[in-house]
Amino acid sequence: MNSVDQLFQYTQTDSSVLKDPEVAHVVLNQNKVLGQNTVPGLNVDLKEMKEGIQAFLTVEEGIHIPKTVHLCFGMMPEKGVQRIEMEINLEKNSRLAVLAHCVFPTAVDVQHIMNATINIAEGAQYSYIEKHIHSLEGGVKVYPKATVHLGPYAQYKTEFDLLKGRVGLIDIDYQTHCDTKSVLEMTAKINGLAQDTIKVNETGFLNGKGARGVLTSKIAVRDEAKAEIRNKLTASAPYARGHVDCKEIVQDNGTATAIPIVEVHNPKAHITHEAAIGSVDAKQLQTLLSRGLSEDEAVELIIQGLLS
Amino acid sequence: MSLLQVKNLNLFLDGKKILDNLSLDVWEGHVHALVGPNGAGKSTLAFTIMGLSGYQNIQGDIIYKGESITHMGLDERARKGITLAWQEPARFEGLKVKDYLKVPSHGKDKKTLEQVLNQVGLEPANYLNRAVDKTLSGGERKKIELASILAMKPRIALLDEPDSGIDVESLEKIFEAVKILKKDGTTVVLITHSLAVLKQAEHAFLICCGRLLKKGTIDKISRYFGEKCIPCDHKNRPQNSQQGSSS
Ligand SMILES: Nc1ncnc2c1ncn2[C@@H]1O[C@H](COP(=O)(O)OP(=O)(O)OP(=O)(O)O)[C@@H](O)[C@H]1O
Ligand SMILES: [Mg+2]
Known about the structure:
heterodimer, A: 9-stranded mixed β-sheet, 9% helix, globular, B: alpha/beta, 4-stranded antiparallel β-sheet, 10 strands, 34% helix, 26% strand, binds adenosine-5'-triphosphate, binds magnesium ion
């Protein structure tokens, strides 16, 4: 097995996708580029740094990248830092979908630091899904930070999933500025165990007329895990619409805090929020118990459903 | 032979006596009906037999296969083969029908899942990948609950109003499903208000105000219900009520 396959096997994605010439991809092990492919209209420029990589991605005006681009940010060593400095530009009316695999399968003491600037120009559409696969040691600290600008009529849909392995520490900090009639959808799904710490800090500024934003967090904390979710939507233009949604399941000695902030600076804007924090629903739990599951199995199934 | 015996059951909720010295026998392999007006205590009795939280602090005894289960938890009772389909089944965000149906069948093959959906009149292709969440209609959710019971093949199934929210055409499917349960060896208790459902049973219990008013054949109970319970305003006990008339 070559080094690309070795790393990619943890992503739960068939590595044959990397053999498809129409699928652009980048595979990284810490600061080394193990594999790369690009497609017409997508420009990828990578620079290795001491502890990571600088990446510039541009999708040219009007280009629709037909197949999902795979980015694999991995780290095979048990210890170390991986720093990703990323700039992504989607030019006018372009389209891009990215599936990012962040795999730290053997991490004992690893830091993954990501700083991204994302510009989505007028009418462009960007979908970014980031899936994390961590070790069971809880030895990963993840700091994803991004500033996003959405031009008029642009769309940005992003999802952050951490469902396999321990979270360790995760500290998400995203800020998005939304112009006229742009659409922002941001979702985080995280499953915390043991002493894991989860911090989510997402802000959407609905500055343009008719801009829309939805911030969703679905979090489970078990054992001694802690979660603190601060999601904020600010609407300052007429007809801006938004919703902040936070669901957290707390079991054992877990702790969850949700601070949804909604701010409206225009009488014609409208933002709602909803937060539900608590144990697993008693009726759901008892239904599964009455079909023969143990309590642990039932809780697991309910949480996997919520986070699915 | 009785599979389950409820003996002198008393249950207080919120300081109110909800089950009042209630005794009844459920016979192995038979289909029973539990009838009575709204608020009579039918669901409460089912919850108590199942051992749901909040329904475990009882006076009296529940005997299953000759053994007291009164001090057993819900999960233990389920593992012994007792199950309950709620009057209003729970909704689960994100949990697919196929995964929900795999719970009682311990991951059995797709064929079983398709079979049980067909048995309740749902087209598998349209439902297996849907979530058991609030997007299902009330009737669809009830049918999936029954499918889950079929997949479980329990020893005893307490079905709380299996007909509620079910359209007339689908009702026949529900009755067929009850027959399949019986054929598979499941003892069934149907909680209902409907005469059509009552007719699916072989024996019936009539409950009012947490007490067993009468038990016996379907004819006898439906006649009694029509003559005494319907004219009664359901707040008072019917006149001449006598506990435990023989069947
Ligand atoms: N937790 C509770 N606290 C207080 N009273 C309760 C509680 N749960 C049920 N009750 C009361 O117990 C009585 C029996 O309720 P139950 O739900 O068992 O009736 P039912 O026979 O199933 O009625 P229906 O036909 O309407 O479903 C009702 O008067 C109800 O209000
Ligand atoms: Mg009821």
